[in-house]
Specification:
The protein is of the alpha+beta class and 429 residues long. The protein has 13 helices and 9 strands. The strands form 3 sheets. It has a 5-stranded mixed sheet, with helices on both faces. Helix 6 runs parallel beside helix 8 and helix 10 packs across helix 11.
Length: 429
């Protein structure tokens, strides 16, 4: 099978949410993956994403900078007080159900629910310790308790038994697995790095969180966010972002406007557009969120996003280099020999919670991810510089550069978010 045909087959499978058997193939052609699934646009009309303020009468030269668009995205995605409370209430109710079924067991949340890197519609990862009964029997007992409206038994990305339990009250899913120690260690590792507990200060916390949240949506829209189909799961994405921030961003010379002098071709123009439209607001928002480098120079989130996309889309040497984490450091290293002989296009990145684990080993769709990152970078630069086509620039005036690059129809996301709150409030009355 030719590399082009294999690449197209893998692309089709990923867009349909199906896994592929790739171990028998050494290489394939990478293609750009467009929005798919529930995010496929239902019409050709221009629909601003839900985080964008109205700009019907705003000219292109006065539109929001990419930095400000990311701030609006983060503000919209930030859970409200009710959304935070209903998730805590869900965890409390589920814990009570488990305690009634098996009093000696302990259940606890892990992952994004603990680190804060979640959307209001995200599922809740939990692990259970000291389970004296088979998972199948636990499934029956949970069902009989009336807690769930649906329960699915399956294998997760690491082939561990997993129950997906849909809360009957809110519709939020709980992903429950038997504790093996790694989930807690992984959660603690993420918290340590994003909170600055690794000895390098907390100035990178906000840029890491913003990049993870934006990129997680970008991947989800394209069904590239799960290693089940060969994509990048959230945990791997976090460490890709951390590696870029720690190894690449600090090397760039900071200018008085907070941008990087040696950024990609076009970023010098990006800085002009970005700083003129949001210079005054960047200082305020950066200081209020604690987003300062050790030199007290604010980081431009738009430049950070462009830098990440450029690095993993164009610059990183996947065939010969690896990213290695320890508990408190990260570095580039030569790729192990075995990784350079078979499927050498894979990203090799060690797990800070277990250095024997290569997090990129199952991400066999990495060439599609890389090509999609590259395309997003090129598109963003053209939009921010103003060199895109007239139609693209008109769309960007309403949807924003970030909205254009993320793509997709958010109506189902917005509906699901509202439905969760509505169901919870109805039950609470």
């Amino acid at each position: 099978m030719s590399e082009n045909i294999l690449g197209m087959m893998l692309k089709d499978n990923m867009m349909d949410g199906r896994p592929s058997r790739m171990k028998d193939y050494n290489d394939y052609t990478g293609f750009v993956i467009p929005p798919c699934g529930e995010f496929v646009s239902k019409s050709s009309s221009i629909e601003p994403p839900p985080w964008m303020p109205g700009q019907a009468n705003v000219g292109f030269s006065q539109r929001l900078s990419l930095h400000r668009e990311i701030e609006h995205f983060m503000a919209y995605m930030r859970p409200t007080k009710d959304e935070v409370y209903l998730r805590r209430n869900l965890i409390t109710r589920f814990t009570a159900v488990i305690k009634k079924i098996t009093p000696i067991s302990t259940v606890r949340p892990v992952g994004s629910c603990v680190t804060g890197l979640y959307y209001p519609t995200s599922d809740i990862e939990m692990v259970i310790d000291s389970l004296p009964i088979p998972l199948s029997l636990l499934e029956n007992e949970i069902w009989n308790s009336g807690f769930a409206s649906r329960i699915d038994s399956l294998l997760d990305d690491s082939a561990a038994p997993l129950l997906r339990i849909v809360d009957a009250v809110t519709g939020i899913e709980i992903a429950l697995s038997a504790a093996d120690g790694h989930a807690v260690k992984a959660t603690n590792a993420v918290q340590a790095w994003i909170k600055g507990d690794t000895g390098e200060g907390d100035g990178d916390r906000t840029v890491i969180a913003c990049l993870v949240m934006v990129l997680k949506m970008f991947l989800s829209i394209r069904r590239l966010g799960s290693t089940y189909t060969g994509g990048i799961h959230s945990y791997l994405l976090v460490w890709m972002v951390v590696a870029w921030v720690k190894l690449r961003m600090p090397r760039r010379a900071k200018r008085s406007d907070g941008l990087f002098d040696d950024a990609a071709v076009g970023l010098r123009s990006v800085s002009k557009t970005s700083s003129t439209s949001s210079n005054s607001s960047q200082g305020t928002s950066s200081s209020s969120s604690g987003m300062h480098r050790p030199s007290a120079v604010p980081v431009d989130l738009g430049s950070a996003l462009l830098g990440f996309l450029r690095f993993y889309g164009q610059e990183f040497d996947y065939e010969n280099k690896s990213i290695q984490f320890s508990s408190k450091s990260v570095r580039y290293a030569s790729k192990p020999f075995l990784h350079r002989t078979a499927q050498k296009y894979l990203l090799c990145i060690t797990d800070p919670a277990d250095s024997s684990v290569d997090l990129g080993f199952k991400a066999y769709g990495m060439k599609h991810v890389r090509e999609t990152f590259r395309d997003a970078y090129v598109t963003l630069v053209s939009l921010v510089e103003g060199t895109a086509t007239r139609d693209e620039l008109v769309r960007a005036r309403f949807e924003g550069a970030l909205g254009c690059v993320l793509g997709g129809d958010y109506s189902r996301f917005v509906y699901k978010r509202k439905r969760i709150l509505r169901k919870w409030r109805s039950h609470s009355q």
